[in-house]
Amino acid sequence: MKIGVLTSGGDCPGLNAVIRAIGLYITENLPDAELLGIPDGYGGLIRGEFFPLKREDFADILNLGGTILGTSRQPFKQMTRPAEDGTSRLKKMVDNYRKSRLDCLFVLGGAGTHKNAALLSAEGCHVIGLPKTIDNDIYGTDMTFGFQTAVEVAVEAIDRIRTTAESHLRTMLIEVMGNKAGWLALHAGIAGGADVILLPEIPFSPDAVVEKVLRNREQGERFSLIVVAEGAFLSDEAGLKKKERQFVRKERGESTVTPHLAEILEERTGIETRATVLGYLQRGGTPSAYDRFLASRFGGEAARLCAAGHFGVTVALNGGNVVYNALSDIAGRDKPVDPKGEAVRFARDIGIFFGTK
Amino acid sequence: MKYAVIDISSGGLSFLVAAAEDNKTEILLKERQPLSLLSYMEGKKLSERGIRKLIDALGGIGSTCERLEVERGYLISTALLRRVTNYEEIVGAVQEKTGLPINYIDGQTEAYCDFAANRCYSAFPRAVLVDIGGKSVEICDLSKREKEEMLFLNFGLFDLIERFVKKTQPTPEEAKKMRDYLKARYKKKGLPKEDHYDTLVAVGPTAEALYAVYAEFTGAEEEGGEKVIRRRSFKRFTDYLLEGEGRSRLILQTAPERLTLILPAAILLKTLVKRFDLSTVVVSDRGVKEGFLRLVLDGREEGAYYDFVKKERGGSRRPSEVRAGSREKPAADGQMPSGAGEEENRKGAEEAEERKAGHKKEGAEKSADKSDGRKAAVPADGEGPTDAEEGEAAVGSLPAPEGKNKKSAARGASSGQAKKAARSGSARTAAEKAEAPRTADDGEGTGRVGKTKSGARRGRPPKKAVAAPSDSPKSDAAE
After folding, report:
1. How far is Cα of residue A96 from the mean position of the Cα atoms in its chain?
2. Distance from B416 to chain A by nearest Cα, in Å?
C-alpha cells in the first residue's frame, strides 16, 4: 500500500503531531505500507514530488510547530483553470496521484483545502481529510486541531496587555485571527476577561463601543480590553461585499477595522487607546497538550479509516468522540459563531459587550 | 393544522412544512439538508456513525418544526432504506431519539405520491412523469388511469453506479455501457418511443439537483415559473459532465450531496429524452413529500406521525403495500378533494389554461423542429407497458377520474388548482435560497501568503524531491 500525506493552507500547531500519529499507526499496523510525504501542500502534488517518510522522520515531532512537509495555498477557484501548459492543476494532481500509484492520500488542511480534497475525491482519488485551522471554522467538527493553542497564545498576550493597560489607564485593542469566523476571538476574549469582543458574525456599531468604554470608566474601571477578530466589521459596512470592504479599508491605509476603531475610540472617549495585532504568533510554536492529544487522535483515526478502505471522508470531533464526515457533506460549508448561540448568550450574560445594543 | 413531511433519501433529508385548513394547503417552508448517507454505509448496513448523523439531522429538523409550531410530523423513507439490512435498528434508534416513526414507502406508493403531487401536469398534452430515484425509476403516463399503465423500473441510479462505475464518475466507456443497458431495459419493458409523449416531467430531489447543476452550467433561467431543460443544451451539458475538467467543481458547488448521482442521472434522462424524442423536459419541484401529504389529507394514505404538541406518536405505520378499494369516491384528475372552494377551481382553471397555451406554443416549436412533419399519435386506450415482467411492477390503483374529457374546464380548473394549492407559498423561500451552494472562495484563512522558512529540521523534504514516474506499468484501467 502506498500512502501519501500533505499539509495545505496556513500552518498551525499540531500538524506534525498528526503526521506522527499517521506514521506510527502505519508502522504498527501496516508494516508493508509505504508512507510518502508530499512537499509544500498541493503544490508538491501538482509538481509530482514525493519523498519517503521513515519512522525516524516523524517519531519525535510531536511537540514541533509548523509542518515538516511545508505548505502552500492553492485556491479552489483556480484548480480547474488551465495553466500555461493547458492542463489544469486538478488534472495534474489526479494524474500524479495515479502515476505514483497511491492507494490513499491524507490531506491536512482547512476549509479551502477540504474543497480541493473533495475535488480530488470526486475525480476518483482516495482521499481522507483532517481538519486543521486555528479558526475552528470547519463545518462538522466541534474542534479543529491548532485552535486551542492559538487560544492559549492569545490569552497569554491579553494577560500581558492587561497589565500595561491598567498601568496606563488605557483602552487596549487586541486583534486576533479569524477572518470569517470569530471562534478564536470569542474564546480568547472570554478567557482573557475582555470587556468587548468583536466578531465577523456580529457587525458592530463604533458608537456603541464608545458608549461601553465610557460606561466602564464611569463605573470605576481603570482600563478596557477589546478583543477584535480580524474579520470584524462595522455595521455600516454590513451591506458591502468583502472586496468593497477591503477597498474602503485600503483607502484608509488599513487591512482590518482595528486601527480605525482605535482612532475613533481615542478621539471620542479621550482615553489613550492602543492596538496590538497578534498576527502569526497565533500560528507558530509548539502545540498545546490538548492539541497534541487531539491531533494524535485525528491522525490515528484517519489511518484506521485508510486501513479499513473508507475514503472520501474527513475526521471530526463530535461530542468528545472522534468520528468522520463525508467530504461532500462538509466541502464549501463553514461553521460561523451563532450570534444567538449559547456561548455568545452566556458571554453577554456576564457583561461582555459585542458591539451591538 | 400544520404538518411536516420529512423524506430520507440518499443525498440527505428534505422536508416541507405546510398549513392545511379548510381544504386549502399552503406550503410554508421547503428545505434540504445535505447528508451523504451512502458515505456512511458499511457493506449493506448503515454504520453507527451514519445513524448518528441521521439522528442529529432529524433533531435539527425537529427543532425547526417546533419553532414553526408544526403539529404533526411524518417521516418517510424511500429508496435508500429499502435495501439496508439494519433497517429495523435504524427505525428503533430514530424513534427513540427523535420520536419520529419512519414510514416505509415502497416503489408503488412512491409513484402514486409522485402522481398525486403532479396531477396538474396532466394538463400538459401527452405528458409523462419520471421520478429518477436511487433504487427505482417511476414512469407515469399522466393521461392514463389504470393500474397496469403505470410503471416503475426496479433499478435506479445506485444500481447503475454499482453495475457500471468503478470510481466516482463514469468514464466515457462506462457511460456508453450504461446507455446501452438502459436502452435494452426500456425496450424490454416496452416503453413507448417517439410520437407518444410531448412532455417529460422529471420529479424527485435528484432531478431537481440535476436541473440546478444544468442551470449553473448553461445559465438557464426558469421559463414562466417552470424549470425547463432544453435537449440541445442538455447534450452539451452531459458531454461536459463526462469529460469537462471543471465538472467536479461544478457539481460540488451546486449539488455536492449528489456528487456521484448527477452524471448517471443525466445519462438516464438523456436516454429517455432520446427514446421519447422530446425537445424539452420540465422539472417539477413537487414530489413524494407533497404527494404523500396530499394523500394523507385526502384520507387515501395513512402513516405514523409524531405529534409535536402532545409529544407522542400517532397514526399507524403504513402497510408495505398500497391499500386498494378502501378509498372514498376518487377525485377527478387534478381535482382537489371534495369540499374544495370554487374560487380555487376558477383560479386553477386560469392557471391551467395559461399553461396549456404555453405548452401549445412549445409543441408548435417542437413540430417546427421536426423536418418530417410527423404528427404526434394518440395512443389507444389500454396501450402501454404491462407489469408482467420480472421484477417490475405496476403502480397501485389510482383514483379514476370523474370526467374523461381531457379538455374539460373542470380538469383544467382542478389541475391548475392542484398546482396552485401545492405552489402557494412555495415560491423559493429564503431558506431554499440560503441552501443554494456557496460560491467558491479563494482559499482558507486570512489570505496571508508566506512561505515557511526551511530549516535544518529532521524530516524536511530533500531539496531534490523525487518526481512521480512518467511511465507506469500499471494502466489506469487496472487501478
Report:
1. 28
2. 37
Residue B231 is predicted with a pLDDT of 94
Nearest residue to A138 via CA among A120, A154, A114, A106: A114
Q: Name the class of domain B2-106+288-326.
A: alpha beta
Distance CA A204, CA A236 (A): 8
- Whole-angstrom distance between the N-terminal and C-terminal Cα of chain A? 59
Cross-chain residue pair A326–B444, CB shorter than 8 Å: no
Residues spanned by the domain of A213: 148-283
The pLDDT assigned to A173 comes to 98
Nearest CA in chain A to B165: A124
The amino acid at residue A82 is: P
Note the pLDDT tens digit of each residue in B239-250: 999 999 889 889
For chain A, what is the domain count? 2
Task: Say if residues A226 and A165 touch (Cβ distance below 8 Å).
Answer: no
Contact A229, A260 (CB under 8 A): no
A211: closest CA of chain B, how far (Å): 30
Q: Is B434 on the interface with A (CB under 8 A)?
A: no
- Surface of B (173-212) touching A: CB under 8 A: none
Collect all residues of chain B within an 8 Å Cβ-Cβ radius of residue A98. 472, 476, 479
Distance CA B78, CA B110 (A): 7
B18: Cα separation from own chain's centroid: 19
Q: Residue A272: is it exposed, middle or buried by C-beta count within 10 angstroms (0-12/13-18/19+)? A: middle
Q: Is the ipTM of this complex over 0.90?
A: no
Grid coordinates 482559499 are at which residue? B443
Residues A189 and A201 in one domain: yes
Residues of A in contact with B168 (CB under 8 A): 121-124, 312
Query: What is the residue type of B133?
Result: G
In a domain, A352, yes or no: no
CB within 8 Å: A10 and B245: no
Mean pLDDT, chain A, whole residue set: 94
A351 CA: distance to closest CA in chain B (Å): 28
